[in-house]
From TrEMBL:
Family: Belongs to the LysR transcriptional regulatory family.
Name this protein carries in UniProt: LysR family transcriptional regulator
Molecular functions (GO terms): DNA-binding transcription factor activity; transcription cis-regulatory region binding
CDD domains in alphabetical order: PBP2_LTTR_substrate
Entry keyword annotation includes Transcription regulation: yes
Start and end residues of each HTH lysR-type domain: 1-58
Length: 297
């Protein structure tokens, strides 16, 4: 039995798809299929029911999943202890980012990490919420900043901040916006982000609670582009409150006053990597940068 087989099993159980598991673990679909099949043959039980485009756990697969995760956790702890015994922490630390660097205090974090771990190669990668989750779950990324209504249950998380988002519109629509109701807002032109972007997930859920969906006319891949398009008068969007207030003071946009949308900013990581020295150092520096106690999770 190999660790990569257990990782394929646990990741596939979480994602429910061989295709997404292969993408998350950066291997081919046939390789994932072969790894799971080899594990099933060694264990003598079928772990998954296979259907076109989707897999689901059998009863045996459900029963063994927690034990498999414990084995991966133990392996991660063992690797962490071995690195501690080696002395200096080396290797690579890959951190996912989900927003503009300043709002994440990314510069302060990286400066502290470079000072504390001079031999560690540190990289950051921007990603959408679901992509970041999958990469952290698969182990291809040690941790990531994550913004959502709640932190993902499949992962550990250090909650850094609760922030608010606001519905904003071009300044030229001030009169219409201030008297608009939910249905009026939904019918106005909206500037969207990709489906798995944290602001789009917040926006979709916000209107779904009203039994509505916003009229999306443009999709942009960054919030900065969305801000620019609102200023240009193209439509409405969901914007972080500090940004919205700053732009409203300059009369660059108008804020719909009837709702604030809360979201958590956190740092997510897999339980199996919580003893990795580089991750331990990252979490410690995050607590210091954000002024959190050492016991907070």
């Amino acid at each position: 039995m190999e660790m990569y087989q257990l990782r394929a099993y646990v990741t596939a159980a979480t994602l429910g798809s061989v295709t997404r598991t292969a993408e998350a673990l950066h291997v081919t679909q046939p390789a994932i299929t072969a790894q799971i099949k080899a594990l099933e043959e060694e264990l003598g039980v079928a772990l998954f029911d296979r259907r076109p485009g989707r897999i689901s756990l059998t009863r045996a697969g459900e029963s063994l999943l927690e034990d498999a995760q414990k084995v991966l956790d133990a392996a991660g702890w063992l690797q962490g202890r071995a690195k501690e015994l080696q002395g200096e922490i080396t290797g690579q630390l890959l951190i996912g980012t989900a927003s503009d660097p300043d709002s994440l205090r990314l510069g302060s974090l990286l400066r502290a990490l470079v000072a504390a771990l001079p031999l560690l190669e540190i990289k950051t990668r921007y990603g959408l919420a679901q992509d970041l989750c999958e990469q952290v779950m698969s182990g291809s990324m040690q941790g990531a900043f994550y913004i959502a209504s709640n932190m993902p249950r499949e992962l550990e998380a250090l909650v850094l901040q609760t922030r608010q988002y606001r519905i904003v519109a071009p300044a030229g629509l001030r009169a219409e916006i201030l008297k608009a109701g939910w249905r009026d807002l939904a019918q106005m032109p909206w500037i969207a982000t990709p489906a798995q972007h944290h602001t789009q997930l917040l926006l979709t859920a916000l209107f779904a609670r009203q039994g509505l969906a916003p009229n999306q006319i443009i999709e942009t891949d960054t919030m900065a582009a969305g801000e620019s398009l609102v200023r240009a008068g193209l439509g409405l969007t969901l914007l972080r409150e500090d940004k919205a207030l700053e732009m409203a003071e300059k009369n660059e946009l108008v804020i719909w006053p009837h709702v604030r949308v809360p979201a958590q900013l956190g740092f997510i990581y897999a339980r199996s990597t919580e003893h990795d020295p580089a991750l331990v150092a990252t979490l410690s520096q995050l607590r210091r940068v954000w002024g959190l106690s050492e016991t907070r999770k």
